[in-house]
Design goal:
The complex is a heterodimer of chains A (225) and B (237). Chain A has 225 residues and is mainly α. Chain A is built from eight helices and no strands. Chain A is globular, with a radius of gyration of 18 Å. The chains are: A mainly alpha (225), B mainly alpha (237).
């Protein structure tokens, strides 16, 4: 099986499972909406405008929703010894990683397909080109989130404390892309010139490349017996 | 099996001796800093922290780099001793980091008026501490020694790659930390920004003392780690 085909088969397998069960996707979408709601009520009403905390809420929601999705990715493999099946198959470990990474990334994007428009609505953001830019920033940051997350969740899923360990292990690693993403989107929404935003995007791209490369390199060590 | 109980005992004994020397050095450093080094004109006594705080920060960074490098070597060579070094160094790094985040606010209060100002270096240290808290949380969650070593090594390496991103982030976030005075290139031309020789001498003594402390602690902790591994393997077989 060619590398690319293996990646697509593994990705499609995960997406098919989620599409058939729907529970996880539905729960994560609800969770993402609830995170927004919690922020609205945790803010001193009338003192802090919704549009000011809007970008922060988006990024916190993205971070936590990603963790919820990532936690599932490998717990799925633990059931019925599915992981052993994949490891026995003539599929390179690197292709395995990329398939899982793609599936995780697409699943978070599926959650965003519902949560992002609601975020625009709830926080009264002007609909326009700036939002497209914000969405692009989100996708850029997400690639790095899920690269580190897919690597770590492959490890935590094999411990007894998976749901607890993944956030503790992963969150410090998400601080750089989170900060670059929040800063970039805030400036986009304020209509600042592109030069001010380019630097943040560059950090995101470098982070993506670094962590995708590193995760591809380390992932085979994690899954091999 | 490359684990040797006698070697572990030797390492603990040597580490203890080295730590004793380092602790005497630390006492000497205090005397040197308080009695024989001039008090800084503007910051007064608060500046004395300069002889402890940056050396601890340097020792933490040294510790985490050693963990990262030995982690990479472990994945390559699969020698359990490398995992024991990585673990020992990470643990000592945590304590050095703890010294940094405790002494930092003690200086920050008189100098800036607040205990915690989200200053870049202190924030950086805090994030590093969180990364390695996760490292140890993962270690405790895995029972099987080889799997634990493998997983920990992956985190140890990733943590090293995070360092430059972490640095960049905290500096972009905000900066009101004093700029480096010892290795500051702009200070070379201006004599008034240069550190007086007495202060430099005490500072370098501090760096030396903390290097010895680091080595002494790591050697002891390494020996303890090897002993634990031997016990685990005995238990399993």
């Amino acid at each position: 099986m060619s590398f690319l085909r293996a990646v697509i088969v593994i990705m499609a397998k995960d997406l098919r499972i989620e599409a058939r069960q729907r529970t996880a996707l539905l729960t994560t979408v609800t969770f993402a909406i609830l995170v927004q709601l919690i922020f609205v009520f945790a803010r001193p009403a009338g003192e802090l405008a919704l549009s000011v905390i809007g970008p922060s809420v988006l990024w916190v929601m993205l971070t936590f929703s990603s963790i919820v999705v990532l936690n599932r990715g490998f717990l799925l493999e633990r059931e019925h010894g599915a992981l052993d099946g994949i490891l026995l198959a003539p599929v390179s470990r690197v292709a395995f990683f990329w398939g899982k990474w793609l599936a995780n990334t697409l699943l978070v994007l599926a959650v965003l397909a519902v949560a992002f428009p609601l975020w625009v609505l709830f926080f009264g953001l002007p609909v326009g080109m700036a939002l497209l830019g914000v969405l692009g920033t989100v996708v850029l940051a997400l690639a790095g989130f899920t690269a580190a997350g897919t690597l770590f969740s492959a490890m935590t899923a094999r411990t007894r404390y998976a749901e607890l360990l993944l956030p503790v292990l992963l969150l410090p690693f998400l601080i750089p892309p989170l900060f670059a993403g929040t800063s970039g989107s805030l400036r986009l929404l304020q209509g600042r010139p592109f030069e001010e935003i380019a630097g943040w995007l560059r950090i995101l791209v470098i982070y993506d490349v670094a962590f995708l490369a590193l995760a591809s390199l380390l992932f085979p060590h994690v899954v091999d017996e | 099996m490359t684990l040797d109980s006698a070697a572990a005992t030797r390492s603990i004994r040597r580490g203890r001796l080295l730590t004793l020397v380092a602790l005497l050095g630390l006492a000497g450093l205090y005397v040197l800093a308080i009695q024989f080094t001039p008090t800084e004109r503007f910051q007064g006594l608060a500046q004395k922290i300069f002889y402890v705080h940056p050396p601890a920060a340097y020792a933490m960074q040294l510790a985490f780099v050693v963990t990262g490098v030995t982690s990479a070597l472990y994945l390559w060579l699969r020698d359990p001793r490398l995992d024991a070094v990585a673990e020992a160094s990470a643990e000592v790094g945590m304590w050095m980091g703890a010294i940094v985040v405790i002494t930092g606010p003690i200086w920050g209060r008189p100098a800036w008026g607040v205990w915690w100002a989200w200053d870049p270096r202190l924030t950086f240290t805090l994030i590093e501490l969180m990364v390695f808290a996760g490292y140890f949380a993962l270690r405790t969650a895995v029972q099987e020694p080889e799997e634990r070593a493998k997983f920990a090594a992956v985190v140890g390496i990733t943590a090293l790659v995070l360092v430059p991103f972490n640095h960049l982030t905290v500096y972009l976030f905000a900066s009101q930390h004093p700029t480096p005075v010892v290795l500051d290139p702009s200070a070379l031309g201006s004599p008034d920004k240069k550190l007086p020789p007495a202060m430099l001498r005490t500072f370098l003594t501090g760096m030396g003392v903390f290097t010895l402390l680091y080595l002494g602690f790591v050697m002891q902790r390494y020996g303890i780690g090897v002993r634990r591994l031997i016990r685990e393997y005995d238990h399993a077989s």
